[in-house]
Amino acid sequence: MIKLDSKVPEGILAEKWTNHKFEMKLVNPANKRKYDIIIVGTGLAGASAAAALGELGYKVKVFTFHDSSRRAHSIAAQGGINAAKNYTNDADSVFRLFYDTIKGGDFRSREANTYRLAEVSNNIIDQCVAQGVPFAREYGGMLSNRSFGGAQVSRTFYARGETGQQLLLGAYSSLNRQVKLGNVEIFPRREMLDVVLVNGRAQGIIIRNLVNGKLERYSAHAVLLATGGYSNVYFLSTNAMNSNATASWRAHKRGAAFANPCYTQIHPTCLPVHGEGQSKLVLMSESLRNDGRIWVPKKAGDTRPPNEIPEDERDYFLERKYPAFGNLVPRDVASRNAKYVCDEGRGVGGGRAVYLDLSDAFKRIGKDGVKDKYGNLFEIYENITGVDPYENPMLIYPAPHYTMGGLWVDYHLMSNIHGLFVLGEANFSDHGANRLGASAMMQGLADGYFVIPYTIGNYISTEKPEKVDTDGSEFIDAEKNVDDTIKKLLSLNGKHTVDEIHRRLGHILIDKVGMSRNEKGLNEAIKEIRELRSEFWTDTKLVGKAEDLNLTLERAGRVADFLELGELMAVDALNRNESCGGHFREEYETPEGEALRNDEEYAYVAAWEFEEVGKWQLNKEPLKFENVKLSARSYK
Amino acid sequence: MSNENLSLTLHIWRQESSKSVGSFEEFKVSVSPDASILEMLDEINNGLEKEGKIPIAFESDCREGICGTCGLVVNGHPHGPLPKTATCQLHMRNFKNGDTIYIEPMRAKPFPVIKDLIIDRSAFDKIQQAGAFISFNTGSAPDANVILISKETADASLDAAECIGCGACVAACKNASAMLFVGAKVSQFSLLPQGQPERYKRVQEMVAVMDEAGFGSCTNTYACEAECPKGISVTNIARMNRDFIKAKFISKEVEV
Fold first, then answer.
1. Run of H or E residues at A201
2. Residue contact A132–B52, C-beta within 8 A
3. Does B197 touch chain A (CB under 8 A)?
4. What is the pLDDT of residue B252?
5. Which of A423, A475, B57, B99 is most deeply packed, by most CB within 10 A?
6. B195 CA to chain A: closest CA distance, Å?
7. For B195-199, which contacts have Cβ atoms below 8 Å and span 24 or more sequence positions?
8. Is the pLDDT of residue A183 over 70?
9. Which residues in chain B are contacts of A240 at CB distance < 8 A?
10. How far is the alpha carbon of B149 from chain A, nearest alpha carbon, in Å?
């Protein structure tokens, strides 16, 4: 059994972080340069952590599998980033952002973490503006805001539909400054394949150099994983092709607990699946729901083109069911309802799609006004579908997009392995069972710029990790472990390609561990994934060599891990006999078809401890709510 | 959306490593018009793997035209024949049945081939590390609305900042010049009040590293703008040149 100590400080919620920053121990500025920190991943969380720790004087080594740290998948985030600035004078506050986030997450996150996220949100905007991030502005020169799902205030800062790109390039610029100053060293085209523990502490990593295939060892006083989420377990998702769970999963197999793996977010506004050869799904930013209205025909099987369907024969189902929030309900609610209308036979564009219609906005602010706000999204749409969205409503359907689950961390962002910190989407901590729009970038940057710089110092000065040599037996064993797995993969000479197995895994998961789940389906999924896993390890075919650039081998290692993680997602979903946020169990719904939580029995974090492949032990961290009243989420 | 498959003849660049000699390999394929060109390559690779052959090495990540990872030269055009389109966004419906398509890596001396269609663009990172930042430490920023920036200025800065760092401008240029890439970054900061303190130092340091990396000069053919998937304007090159020349007349830090 793992001891799960959340380390949430005592005291009043609004003062916890401030007081704790004072209580935590410091590393004297001159001593910081004696400490090496490894960071894996260069997205918003990794890049911002690397920059901030470099500025403090730590010696930082950063690893990315990309050719450049600027290409991490944060770059593709579109819509925006939340902050409780209240620049729009619409009664926003830190507490309201905290409350919206914890309610949006269906009361399954830690109060103190979520509050801290809201608290530092304002610093993030200041930080990014000072870096030269060209956020959208009003004519008078002030920053502009828009609204996102799950909120009734306008608190989202944005740069057209490319906010992630601009924020990541901002963090990348700060990172580059530290490279020039000699505090940070970047290692591109490297993939982390194991974490090395010395006396139970994370002190190093094993890396595969993706150009020459050689294994490399690196040691440090602490290891930070900022390696993103696991939506690609579904094969088709909005994540980039190379996004994967391998770093997190290998850490999990070394003892780090994996929390709430069944909390996955299926984003409502994505382009529908068009065919079997498709490699990924593309998101249309949720910001479109500000001005777009979602509808389907009232009649099932209505095949008329959208402009021939009169107003009174359209069902604006979100506005009808949730008049208070309308099209801006949280993502899980919007997705599930899109699925329901399609299940009823009212889907359009072949059956698995709904309309996202901006014609009211065209009338109100004109096509140029719409173009100014969402121009690049319209281009993406036309480019992919070949259909002009200025003339026809967009076809959209939900797609896997974000994973709220991840490695378990305490208030310091440290996993149960001492010295192993987990940041951004890779951890589980802030979003509960559902993440609100424009909160992922907020969390990535909060963790990197404003949390880890404090907590890492406390770890170093409290636990005093020693410098270790990479010639030690722990490094030799870990490297051998990685090498054995690579050899085993390359020896496979069956008939299926890696992608074929991955695609089949995706089908199982989206059908049975997707937008809605039930006991029967989950039991089937577990059985099918186990069978698929053994098929993978006996009947896949790999080509190429270990010591070479080998893309097939890279994918094979990731799919091998997905085949284990996928099972844990189903195990977790089966254990959680309630519906909450993105985890919807058909057995547990209200008479109106909404998620029915069971706070008595399930107000806990499910932190799974790895025992052997296909076998885990459940550890529970109870969630205490002292500042918000647990209530059924209502967006009506 | 889908029509009948297209029958195509492909000539794809194969090169085992940076040191080996490469050549085109021919493939005959039948592909859905809804597939992207990268999905077509996925399909070919799946087939090659099944036959135990080494798949074509190519890179891509977001497949939404924003990460800048992909970047193939298709029929002589970086990112293919469509304007303002990254390779991953190029769908096969833009080709005709019976077409012959040449696919090769972006070629430039500072971008050596690593394998097949994968190139090394680390020279771009080195230029950015030379000065593409605003020097201040985390935690010291004033309230964001203290700095007022007109909408026009912010928009112009964002127009420049949209560069995805793919390298198409270099591949399009007969001189392998990186001026559009560097000019875009210089402009993003030169246009903003936050970028002013280091404006003239920045441009000189970035240009020095750009020259060192072996990128050529700009001779105003505008091929870079024509091929840029984000439509970055050559006016950014002009702005960089103005800053660079002005920097020669003033001290590094203080505008006199």
1. strand A201-209
2. no
3. no
4. 53
5. A423
6. 7
7. B195/A132, B195/B134, B197/B134, B197/B135, B197/B253, B198/B131, B198/B134, B198/B135, B198/B253, B199/B243, B199/B255
8. yes
9. 61-63, 67
10. 4
Question: Which member of A331, A517, A555, A576 is catalytic?
Answer: A331
The tens digit of pLDDT for each residue in A442-467 reads 999 999 999 999 999 999 999 999 99
pTM above threshold 0.95: yes
A76 and B165 in contact by Cβ < 8 A? no
Name which of B62, B118, B136 is nearest A130 (Cβ-Cβ).
B136
Q: What percent of chain B has pLDDT over 70?
A: 96
Q: Enter the tokens of residue A49.
A: 């952590």
Residue B134, pLDDT > 80, answer yes
**Residue A489 lies in domain:** 473-622
User: Would residue A331 show up in a list of annotated catalytic residues for this protein?
Assistant: yes
B54-73 pLDDT, tens digit per residue, is: 999 999 999 999 999 999 99
Q: Residue A274: which CATH number?
A: 3.90.700.10
Decide if A550 is inside a domain. Answer: yes
Q: Where are the beta strands (DSSP E) in chain B?
A: 6-14, 23-31, 72-74, 77-78, 100-105, 113-115, 118-119
Of the candidates B39, B141, B145, the beta carbon closest to that of A143 is on B145
| Helices B199-212 and B235-249: angle between axes, nearest 10 degrees | 110
Chain A neighbors of B132, CB-CB under 8 A: 173, 176
- Give the type of residue at A505: L
Q: Say whether pLDDT at B1 is over 80.
A: no
The DSSP secondary-structure symbol of A213 reads -
**C-beta atoms of A279 and B38 within 8 A:** yes
Query: Are the Cβ atoms of A67 and B120 closer than 8 angstroms?
Result: yes
Q: What is the pLDDT of residues A540-572, one digit of tens each?
A: 999 999 999 999 999 999 999 999 999 999 999
* Kind and range of the H or E run holding A171: helix A163-180
- The reply to whether residue A543 touches residue B55, judged by beta carbons under 8 angstroms, is yes
Number of domains in chain A: 2
pLDDT by residue (tens digit) across B199-250? 999 999 999 999 999 999 999 999 999 999 999 999 999 999 999 999 988 8
Domains plus CATH for chain B? Answer: 6-115 (3.10.20.30), 122-249 (1.10.1060.10)
Domain shared by A360 and A487, yes or no? no
Under the banding of pLDDT at 50, 70 and 90, the label for residue B251 is low
Nearest CB partner across the interface for B145, out of A87, A134, A500: A87
Q: What angle do CA A499, A503, A509 make, to 5 degrees?
A: 145
DSSP state of B27: E
Chain B positions touching A498 (Cβ under 8 A) are: 49
Cα nearest neighbour of A168 on chain B: B67
**Residues within 8 A of A (CB atoms), B 53-72 only:** 53-55, 57, 59-69
Kindly list the residues from chain A whose CB atom is less than 8 angstroms away from the CB atom of residue B121: 67-68
Q: Is residue A421 part of a domain?
A: no
CATH classification at residue A512: 1.20.58.100
Interface size, chain A vs chain B, as Cβ–Cβ contacts under 8 Å: 218
A394, A512: one domain: no
CB A65 within 8 A of CB A242: yes
